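Lab manual, section 2.4: Encoding a predicted structure.

Procedure: take the sequence of the chain (89 residues), apply the prediction step described in section 2.3, and record the output as structure tokens. A sample record is shown.
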Amino acid sequence: MRAQLHIQNLKCGGCKATIINRLSVIKHISGVDLDLDNETVSFDYDTSHDLEKAKHVLSAIGYPIIGSDNKLYTKVKSYLSCEIGRIKN
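Recorded output:
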């Protein structure tokens, strides 16, 4: 199955690199792609459990799904994740 999720705090290529790297290592998640303009991440997954795990990882690194809480500490996590993505990229 393929998911397309609208996420918060997506800003640049650093964010994109971090998200792709973090989701790509999850078992049963593949084909990760990001659209910066539309603030979406798309990927293939096997079960609803895999989808929920991906959502959890996105939130944990500061990119929660639109409609989820986006508190200050979540925004801070996204900035840190972004910087890590820039350094590794």
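Check your result against the sample. The longest helix spans residues 72-88.
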